[in-house]
């Protein structure tokens, strides 16, 4: 059963109202359109980057996977902790050496991020130092501070990354403000709709390669820039270029800044 079929079935069963069904169908249409634009941009690329999660160098050995449908999500590091702590209407479950944060079972008549639109959860997660973060389909504003690596797919909402050491993210809709310290491994960031601001923090050593379809572009002076039909390509190296960062931006302004040591 498709997402549209599930919405129509819930409406027919009286589990959601016509207004709620219209809200969900509109949100689904926006996401489907953005995903189609992202797929089209990926098809234009002759050499797609390998997933950063497979080649992150000396990346984190322990992870927290976040499966919260919708609502604002805040993740920060607390060096006094030995295990993650969560605050909000969610459950923390152990998975071997890792942890999973999920919405409480049985709450939503429609599961996943669409269900989360009808029932918003605001969640705060505090992590011991060294944990990576994996996010599945969140729809809401996300703020992450001080973690070594962030990977996942974000459906909607603004993303703020502070002092993060690695990324492998797809953001469908919303602005991205990322303060990154990239020094090893491979990293990717794909955004379909919204402005993208990236600051490469002092200590970064990274080769940046990117593509943008529309919007204004602001780059460091020593980066190169080339326009081919509707796609604009750019590249540049910070430090000795030990890490790589691949960027794909479809709609929205892009700005890259570098903290010079």
Give a structural overview.
The protein has 261 residues and is α/β, with parallel strands linked by helices. The chain has two domains: 42 residues, no CATH class; 207 residues, Pectate Lyase C-like (3 Solenoid), CATH 2.160.20. The strands form two sheets. The protein has an eleven-stranded mixed sheet with strand order 4-5-1-7-9-11-13-19-15-18-17. A nine-stranded mixed sheet has the order 3-6-2-8-10-12-14-20-16, with no helix packed on it. The longest helix has 27 residues. The protein starts with a helix and ends with a strand. About 9% of the residues have low confidence.
Shape: flat
Query: Which structural category fits the helices and strands?
Result: alpha/beta
What is the subunit organization of this protein? single chain
Helix content: 10-25%
Task: State the total count of DSSP E strands.
Answer: 20
Overall residue-averaged pLDDT value: 81
Strand count, sense and barrel status of the largest sheet are: 11 strands, mixed
Distance between the termini: 54 Å
- Backbone CA Rg: 19 Å
The stretches of 5 or more residues where confidence is low (pLDDT under 50) are 41-58, 106-110
CATH-level-2 architecture of the largest domain = 3 Solenoid
CATH topology of the largest domain: Pectate Lyase C-like
* H and E order: HHEEEEEHEEEEEEEEEEEEEEE
Beta-strand residue fraction: 35-45%
